[in-house]
Structures are given as C-alpha cells and as structure tokens.
Amino acid sequence: MAGLLEGKRGIIFGALDEKSMAWKVAEKCYEQGATFTLTNAPIALRMGRINKLAEKCNTKVIGADATSIEDLENLIDDSVETLGGKLDFVLHSIGMSPNVRKKKEYTNTNYDFFQKTLDISSLSFHKVLQTAMQKDALNEWASVLALSYIAAQRVFPGYNDMADAKAVLESIARSFGYHYGFKKKVRVNTISQSPTPTTAGSGVKGFDAFFNYAEKMSPLGNASADECADFCIAMFSDLTRKVTMQNLFHDGGFSFTGVSQEIIEEMS
Predict the structure, then answer these.
(1) Cα–Cα distance between 31 and 168 in angstroms, integer?
(2) What is the pLDDT of residues 151-181, one digit of tens each?
(3) How far apart are CA 127 and CA 124, in angstroms?
(4) Per residue in 18-39, pLDDT tens?
(5) How many helices (H) and strands (E) in the chain?
(6) In which band, very low, low, confident or very high, does the pLDDT at 43 lie, cut at 50, 70 and 90?
(7) Is residue 140 within a helix (H) or strand (E), and if so which, with residue range?
C-alpha cells in the first residue's frame, strides 16, 4: 500500500494524543506520502501533545475553533498556502458533549449544553464543508470524512445527546455530499467505527460494557484505531472515487449481527 496518497494534501482535525483516531490517521497519511496540516481547538492544543505529532509528520499545527467560520477560513487559507495547493482530503474527528461531561442524563438534558454538543460535533462539519466550497479549496475527487458511531441508528443509553449529534453528522454528509458531488466531484462520507478506547470515547458512561459487548457480538471483533486509520487511507485514495454520501460501518460486522453464539451462551 506504500504511496497511496503520494502528492495529496489535506487537513486533519482532532488529533489530541496517541490514543486519538485522528493521530493514527495522521501517522498513516504521512507513511502513505501525503502532506497535511493538523488542527484542533486552542484549548485542546494546550491539553494535548499535537506538536510531537507535527514534528514526526514534518508538518504545521494551526489552531482553529471548528465552530468559528473566521477560524475555519484562516485555517483553510493557511493550509493551502503552507501545502502549496488545493486540498485532496479532510478528516473531521471532532466530538464533545457537555451533557456527557457533566453527567447529565438524557431525560434531564441541559439544552444550552445540547446546542453546544450539536455545534461542536455536527454543525462544525457543515461549516468545514461550506467554507471549503465557498473558497474552492478542494480539488476534484477530493475526499472528506467524518467519524461517527452506530448510536446514530440504535440506542446506547450512556451515549446521551452525542447519539443525536452523530445522526445529524451523517445527514450532513449525505446532503452536502450530493451538492459537492455535482459541483466539484468531491466525496463526502462518514465512518461508523467500533467503540474505540480513545480519550474522548472512554469518557462515555458504560464505555467498557459497550466495548466488551461489541467484541462478543462482532464476527471479526472490534476494529482498532489503527485499522480505522487504514480504512481512512483507502477512502482518501483514488481507489474509492465513486464512494460518496455513505455511512460506512467499520465495526467487524457488529452493525448487521442480531445476536452472536457467545452472547446466547452467556445468557443461557
């Protein structure tokens, strides 16, 4: 697979530390010959170790609040200038819920918190796409990905209002993918990943139970962060040019398994 992204340029949102899926994707993109900029919110830059990743990948960190159009405009302009041309891929790996952090139950939602969840975890994706389109910053056949979770389709109680945010995220990918496809042949997809022990994911109530249950339900087992990064590379490459407007399950078969023999035996 060496060189699948040779000559391609992009932006990777959301790398915080070595556990982040965005961190893994950045490492794989670099291995496959891509150049890219890294970005995260200013507070995340102070908390994380992103400069270590930038040094490893010989790239630049550009702080940006993904909910701010002004910040996104500056990010895109700086990235295009730094990388020497329009972009070929974007990874949106952003998600945060104040309700989850404050341990608010779904049936006792704080609506100001809920609006922040949607703005950070979903509407930021629309803002990234809209800003890129208005600036004509993406090349034809560029690939834009956002990371999702099956709680957009099924109930996982501890996932809280993040489930609603992921449902909106997937809808944005379909709707914007339609418009961007006709306008510029740009592909827009979401990847619904297995529960993965990232810094953000591990903060969800009941995460360990989610993880263990999915492992026992999935014929191929849970997909790791490294395997998710491999999938992202394939989606950024020219090998998937006609894949767009999809929510792609990367979960070892969990999404289409009703019940596994292991679960039956445990319940018997």
Answers:
(1) 32
(2) 999 999 889 999 999 999 999 999 999 999 9
(3) 5
(4) 999 999 999 999 999 999 999 9
(5) 11, 6
(6) confident
(7) strand 138-148
Using CA atoms, how far apart are residues 42 and 74, in angstroms rounded to an integer? 14
Q: Residue 1 has what pLDDT?
A: 47
Please list, in sequence order, all residues whose beta carbon lies within 8 angstroms of the beta carbon of residue 146, skipping any fewer than 6 positions away.
91, 92, 93, 94, 125, 169, 172, 173, 189, 190, 191
- Domain extents for the chain? 9-267
Query: Which amino acid makes up residue 104?
Result: K
Rounded Cα distance, 184 and 255, in Å: 32
pLDDT band at 237 (very low <50, low <70, confident <90, very high): very high
pTM: 0.95
* Cα 34 to chain centroid, rounded: 18
Structure tokens at 168: 């909106």
CATH no., domain 9-267 = 3.40.50.720
CA 214 – CA 216 distance, rounded (Å)? 5
* Nearest alpha-carbon partner for 21 in 250, 259, 256, 266: 250
For residue 46, give both structure tokens. 């102070």
* 97/160 Cα distance (integer angstroms): 8
Shortest CA distance to 149 belongs to which of 220, 219, 97, 72?
97
Residue 261 to residue 268: CA distance in whole angstroms: 10
Q: CA-CA distance, 254 to 215, in Å (whole number)?
A: 8
Say which residue the tokens 């090349």 belong to: 139
